[in-house]
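Internal ticket #5521
Category: modeling
Description: The requester needs a full-assembly model to guide mutagenesis choices. All entity lines are attached below as received. Residue total reported by intake: 427.
Assigned to: D.W.
Attached entities:
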Amino acid sequence: MKLLSSMRRQRSLLNCAPISARQLADRPMRSAISRADDSAEFVDQQNFDRAVAQLVSLISIPAESAEWFSEKDLVPVRKRTWRNMVRNPAVLAISIAVVVIAGVFVFNFVSHLNDFPGSATARKLLGVAASTRPVMLDPVNAEAGTLSDLFFMKHGLEHYDVPEQFADFGTIGCRVFEDDESRRIAQIWLSEKRMQLFLFPAERDSKSGAVLRFPGWRYVHQEGWTGAVTEHSGVCFMAAVRGSDKDLEPYLSQPKE
Amino acid sequence: MREVFRGPSGVPERKQNLPQLYRFCFLMLGDSRKAQEVFHATLREAAVRAARGELPSEPFWLFRDARWRCLDVTKSDLQPEWVEMEERDVATKAESQIQRLDPMQLAIWISAAPDPQRTALALFYLDEFDYREILEIAELKLSELSRFLAKGRRQLQAWLDSKFPQAGNV
C-alpha cells in the first residue's frame, strides 16, 4: 500500500518536473527525476515542455506594457529623511550602542587621567579598608608615627614611615599582610575619624627596577572611600577615609609643627 | 514604481518578474489587448498600494492578483462550449510540431482550457516557478497539478497532431 502511494507520488512529481535546471531545488523531485531519467516517456515529456516554454518565452511585450519595466519612478519613492532614519530601530539600537561604548571610553579615560604609579594598588587597598573590621587587627594603643620602628623591628619593613601629618594620631590597631601579588602591606587603624593608613611598596619600572616616583599627594576613589597617596623612599603611604577629598584635605594642607 | 517590485529587504523580487507577469496574463486570456488591460490594472493597483505603504509581503501576490483579474475578465466573456477533448500520448515529434506554432496560437489554446487547469498550464510553462510555488499561487494540491499538466500535454499533443499531421514524419 505504502509502495503504491510512493509510486503515485513519484508519478505526480514527474508530471510537474521542472523545465529548466534552475527550478531543481527539491530533493524528492530530484530523486524522482533521477529514477526516470532514462525512460523515453520522460525524455519526450521534457522535450515537449522545453519546446512549449521556449514558445512562451517568445511572447513579445507590447510597448505600452514595456514602459512599466523602465527605470523611471512612476510612483515617487519616499525620500529618506533624517527623522525616519533616526526612528529606524536598527539605527536607534546602533546609536545607543555607540553612545554607551563612547561613554565607557570617556569614563575610563577620565578616571585614568589622575592615575599615578601605584594607583591600582591604592584602589584595591580602599576595598580592603571598606571590608576591614577592628578585630582583624592587632590592638595597638600608640601614636601612629611610632609604628615605623615596630614594622622594621618585627617585620623587617624599611622606610614604612607614617608622614608627619598623621604621625601624632592615636592608633586602635595595626597589621602586616600580603596582597595577591605577595607585596607586604602595613595597615594602621586610627581613632581619628576611623581613618585607616596603608603603607605599601611603590611601583617599580619592570625593566630597570627603578621606583616610579610621583610628587605630592594624589587622590584615589573606590566604593565611597577616598585615599590620599604619597610616595617616599620607595614606599607609598595612603590615608583612607569613608568620604570625599574634602575629608582628607585638612590633614594634607600643612605638615604639623 | 521600482519599490512595488522589491521585497521587504529592498531587493528586487525575481518572482515578481514583470515581463513574465504580462506573459502570464496573455496565456490566461489569449488576447493581447485584454492581457494588457489586466497587466496595467494589476500594476496600477500595486502602485497605489506602494504609495500607501500597503504592499503585501507575500512573495507571489502580483501573479495571484493578476490571476483573479484574468478569471474575472473571462467570466464576462462568451464561454466555450464544453467538449471532451481528444488526448494522445506525448510524441517524440512534438518538439518539431510546437516549433511550428506561434505564441498567439499557444496562448489561445491554453486560455480555452478550464480553470484551474488554465492557471496551472500558464504558470508551469512560464518556467518561472517550481512546482511548490505553482501549488501556492494556484492553490492546488500536487496530485491536482500533476493531473492538469499530464492531461494538458496529452490534449495539446492531440491538437498538434490534428493541426500538423505530417510534422516529424518527414
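Resolution: model delivered.
Comment from assignee: Chain B has a mean pLDDT of 83.
Ticket closed.
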